Fold these 4 entries.
Entry 1:
Amino acid sequence: MAVLESNRLTAGPVMARFEAEFAAIHGCKFGLMCNSGTSAMHIALAALKEVYQWNDGDEVLVPALTFVATSNVVIYNGLKPVFVDVDPHYYTIDPSKIEKMITPRTRAIMPVHIGGQPCDMDPILAIAQRHNLRIIEDSAETMFVGDKGRSVGSFGDVGCFSTYAAHMITTGVGGLCTTNDPELIVVLKSLMNHGRDSIYLRIDDDQVEGRDIFEIADRRFSFVRLGHSFRATEMEAALGQAQLEERETLCAKRQEIVARLNKGLAPFQDELQLPQVRPGSEHSFMFYPLVIRNPAILRDDLIRFLENHSVETRYLLPLINQPVYQTLFGDLTLDYPVAARLNKTAFYIGCHPDMTDEDVEHVIECFGDYFRRSPTG
Ligand SMILES: Cc1ncc(COP(=O)(O)O)c(C=O)c1O
């Protein structure tokens, strides 16, 4: 309401505060809000491509299991995604498989913190340092947690977050970049805003005391690189700021739901691999991933049963078997056995803080009913 009453809908003081607080919580000096997590990743890659002078066709390492946007933005930036298989327990990029995918054209790694589980960052950082690679974290699904005491979003050159509806905090649509690099933040802001001269990126940038107003007026409409229209509004920032203030309660509720699901589903551990938290790491549980363990159980039969009983599911971020990726890259099943297996056996259910105790009990009961009625139950 304060934003509506202020009559200021474009990026203003509320967005500046949201960006600064979100960045600080994630161990970074600078934050930038834009209109989606995909936009955040798109400009992160574009900024690094410009600053480090990458060429079209240079390669970026991307996990073989992630939401399509991670890999799409690589392609849209004229770069080539090279996939790396994932860990079978935590579903994040497998550091032991990264180095064999590095070529003289590799420029960056995009670790994706899947569903709230940060990647195993120490070996990834060591590899990046050895091979002089940049790091862009896709942390769209993971906020407020870290690996070995360090926050997601602060490990690499740029961290990218999504505040889309289903995410840890939401602004309807939206995303953020975080960075500690003062040069990159200027390029990111410009890229988000049509490639404008950095002298004028928000409407009060002409109110800087002691600055020659004509110099600003002269450069205000100057475009220095090919940019995008990826701006978010002050109202979205207000939603984000309000949720940021409630984050501890929201996150605690998720952990409580996850603990209840863990307990309720524990009797089915021969059938299902329940989520685990990597030692030394935290988990913010944007969703609750499950993998079928017993080959006699058909995932899609279980999913049909759950959906018929109002328990919504999603497959666990299949990438290499997406129709568009099969068209672009052919059949990658044999090259990425873990991702290929998870594409057939993994899925997730919700653990949203608005779930009631009855909702959680209903989910647990549905699994019980299914396994009792199935031949292996
Ligand atoms: C891993 C991952 N990366 C990127 C995105 C893209 O975020 P957005 O939907 O805000 O563009 C998502 C989103 O949904 C995601 O799950």
Entry 2:
Amino acid sequence: MMLQRTAPTLENVRIAQRTYRLRLECPEIAARIRPGQFLMLRLPNTSDPLLGRPFAFYDTIDDTSGRPFALDVVYLVVGKMTSRLADVRAGEPIELWGPLGNGFADPGPIDEALFVAGGIGQTPFLAFARQLLGRRGYAGAAAQQRTERIRLLYGVRSADLAAGIEDFRAQGVDVALASDDGSLGQRGYVTQLLPTTAPRGPVYGCGPEPMLHALAQWAKHVSARCWVSLETPMACGIGACFSCVTRVQTDTGWDYKRVCVDGPIFDAAKLLWEHPND
Ligand SMILES: Cc1cc2nc3c(=O)[nH]c(=O)nc-3n(C[C@H](O)[C@H](O)[C@H](O)COP(=O)(O)OP(=O)(O)OC[C@H]3O[C@@H](n4cnc5c(N)ncnc54)[C@H](O)[C@@H]3O)c2cc1C
Ligand code: FES
């Protein structure tokens, strides 16, 4: 069930170049949200921008009795809303609605999981890593371990944009890095870190569409099961405006699906990519 709240900001801290972690006190949404779902955030008392913006749920924070009372979002400043968000101070209110979207499906017990993130695409994966490793449950579910091994391939343009690597390593995730300019990890695209054979478990990707398209092509080539989280721009987040559609294969051809309600997680093999890599 989607909730709409105005929540006080607890922290809004810079964690990398143009990248911030925003912590909002919102126990009702924190108690309901699952990995892979997202939130719409809006700045109150302004019509500029008028519309909210979608952000992946990064993680929840528990109170002393172990109940989630706050949630984190990690965002990159790219335009109007995110620039203004960076100026928000502790105590100031933010409007939010969520949980939104389908979230990651439970893969059941698996040998390993491979996460592939580009740009700000690491954000949906921290809570999912904790869930799969059995470190915690979400939305009232008990913690249940699905794997002991998660590898994150994470690519950024340059080292100063890398955010949250220590959060992943602290959970026991094995992190491999790439950067366009060679200032962090291997020089080149994150997809150049992909193995030549299929991993022993599902693959999950999030990042710019050309990266996800390349990942989907690789997954098809090595016969890996691959799920991607799309970052399509959205106006409402609740299925009402059709601003977020993407084309998905169906039994009879293809159909438009709304990323906000049918996604943001999709089977990579079913997506019809708008920007061919070939
Ligand atoms: C499900 C979902 C989860 C997301 N999670 C995160 C997250 O965890 N952290 C994060 O930083 N961002 C995330 N995004 C992207 C985020 O919503 C946009 O960066 C944000 O809406 C930009 O708002 P703005 O007003 O600052 O930029 P605008 O002023 O609206 O846009 C500035 C520029 O960025 C471009 N732009 C805006 N949105 C996107 C987009 N989604 N993809 C490509 N270009 C875009 C515009 O075309 C424009 O050129 C997510 C998007 C979706 C759909
Ligand atoms: S954002 Fe309005 S329908 Fe998806």
Entry 3:
Amino acid sequence: MTYQNYSLKQLQQIDAAHHLHPFTDHKEMRGAGSRIITHANGPFIYDSEGTEILDGMAGLWCVNIGYGRDELAEAAYAQMKELPYYNSFFKCSTPTPVLLSKKLAEIAPKHVNQVFYGSSGSEANDTALRLVRHYWVLEGQQEKNRIISRKMAYHGSTVAGTSLGGMDGMHKQLNGAVPNIVHVMMPYAYELALPGESDHDFGLRAAGAVEEAILEAGADKVAAFIGEPVMGAGGVKIPPASYWPEVQRICRKYDVLLMLDEVITGYGRTGEWFAAQTLGIEPDTITTAKALTSGYQPLSALLVGDRIASTLVEKGGEFNHGYTYSGHPVACAVALKNLEIIEREGLVDRVRNDTGPYFAKALQERIAGHDLVGEVRSIGLMGAIEIVKDKATKERFLPAGSAAVTVRDYAIANGMMLRATGDTMILSPPLIWTRDTIDMACDRISKALDLAQADLSKR
Ligand SMILES: Cc1ncc(COP(=O)(O)O)c(C=O)c1O
């Protein structure tokens, strides 16, 4: 690798001169210089100075089997030598997407048996949007095209992804979203439950917002509801147990399709292959990406339920949609090996039976009591820490988001990578974390909280 011939300073200068980063204030970043991560192994990432950092975010919610897996590199190498690329247009196929589709049908909920590939979660959601609208056209209901989503949802950053998502800042810059997408309240009890309202009742009320949106438009105008099982980028917002079954009941009542965006939750994170299984719901589409290859290759898979797939097949006619890299043979080879490793090492069961419960307990016992922490919550190996100025009143530090960034910066300086979203710290580590790794993370987070508290109290 030639990067070793460059100093950190040189790499930062070249980065600043030529590289536009995602979701970045370039003026700010170019002043400070980027953090250059050069290598990684197991649960750790290393920067160009050799600093070891425990990766609490699995890259960007994706490196579920951890770093440094030779088997994935070997799978990619072997596939590249044999057939680096061929398309799956024009009635062609290649072996690895064929076999991956079979594997995905095996691990997905029973009624989900078809797969449409892309290279990112955003692309997969674009496919999902087009597919559900196409479905209703095939069913003779051209006007049933409205999608109900939620405020603060994240469904990717293409025009379709941004439009489906409910992030205000993204919508402002989009300046003209895909029409006929509406956003209802999110199921975020910590901030939105009324005084004295139980979690259960709040969950039903939040689900009720979906019904209101259906009734407002008319059920004959609503194609689908889309949601992340747990709102990830929005702050690991875990809905009350009453929420999803009620949303599903409402969708069924009005014949509205259910689209589940499992780009973060897919492939073991909640202790089942898919959160749909954890929640016991039966979505018509399941968007997946990220951990499908543990991030070693860009690949997404929209899992399509039998209802939509059978209409598509029975009614026929071309679905005018697809990507050059749909079913990329190398990415699919890597995904197959990744799923094999997850299975062989029993990572999904481990999250469900061991590390998930241990993680929940550790956050409750070691983090929740800190003065800066309003609430901790987790599901499987996915967690959130709410940063507050006052535990009792839930008052936040000003300006909004600044305290969480302070905690994050101290965490990184102390060898712990986690993310700040608004006033929430979020964690989504590789599924290879053990009890010891969880303890190590809690040590480092506690220390970061102490340092941040001392700092914030001086401001
Ligand atoms: C729930 C969800 N959907 C979609 C996406 C978009 O995926 P990608 O960045 O691969 O386009 C993300 C990315 O974080 C996500 O969290």
Entry 4:
Amino acid sequence: MNYVYFDHAATTGVDPRVFARMEPYFSEFYGNASEIHGPGRKAREAVEWGRAAVAQALGANEKEIVFTSGGTEADNMALIGYAQRFSGGHIITSAVEHPAVMESARFLQRQGWDVTFVPVDQYGAVDVDAYRAAFRDDTRLASVMLANNVVGTLQPVAELARIAHDQGVAFHTDAVQVAGSLPIDVDELGVDMLSISGHKIYAPKGIGALYVRKGTRIGPILHGGGHERRLRSGTENVPGIVGIGAALELAVAEMSATRPRLEQLRDKVVAATLATIDEVQLLGDAVNRLPGNACFSIRYIEGESMLLQLDGKGIAVSSGSACASGSLEPSHVILAMGFGAEEAHGSLRLTLGRENTEAEIDYFLEVFPPIVEHLRKMSPLYVKG
Ligand SMILES: Cc1ncc(COP(=O)(O)O)c(C=O)c1O
């Protein structure tokens, strides 16, 4: 694919080194991991290797990892699986969660649960006082993402988990955008459950995992043969499990080199964009953000128009409204940060990955300002001051 790809928060390609590890499990070692014959044992060995690799990368115990079909299922399992223990109650989450958490919470709301969506500040960080004040006697679970997928802001999850535990409440975090980019240690974070997804970290689509701390009781949301610790039924995706394990291993091994490089590229694109285009704003926290995320609001023009013009130049980016695929609704994240619909519509997100180069950033910086100028000329809203 001859594209400059700046949409790694949406998905990544499978790293060839990861693919090489997975390949034998498609057609050579294709046994069902539940069978006790040789091919089954070979598959089981691979599943347990993947589990150990994921556990190691998260600072968890192998017994605490449940494989799922991705981040969405892990989030559903955390909220809905945990809620099953109770006949009802109250859940706390944030106003900027990914739909996988947001809609799981709304599903529970329709089942009679109360849900508080805690507000965020203008940078997308959860209002810790409002969060603390939201706890009630019947609060059962709090779930706040480790980093936001649209604006990249990191949340103070260790503090939020501590506050929840002080109230005797379990805590889940969606770490889908953080795994592989920044170090994760479930004990340092103090979380009870944590979701990750393969396709954001150079493993394939269709595999993810939920970390469930020992002693945290949850129920299944998929019913059947009980393959994964009786919590998740469905024949194990052996190549996917090997893939997510290998991808995490690689990401952790290379993080000390990848992270500063991405931060430097991100800072370059942010500084140059703010310097060369007027009426543009960086969305999210300037410092406390994901290494590869640069998200802007560019006034008077639509994110989708910019996206399509950049696409014409062979550059793949996302508008802030992405992730609800194909949706032209303004991003609920940007609205929750206090911006108006017009600013939300003018959002553009670049998410960099480890294969991106400085030359690609330079190419973007060369073609983007004329695109903005061209679109603004056509915008009835824009009057150059
Ligand atoms: C923060 C976050 N959570 C959950 C998901 C869903 O993960 P998956 O695509 O593996 O279902 C995504 C994907 O965009 C995400 O960014």
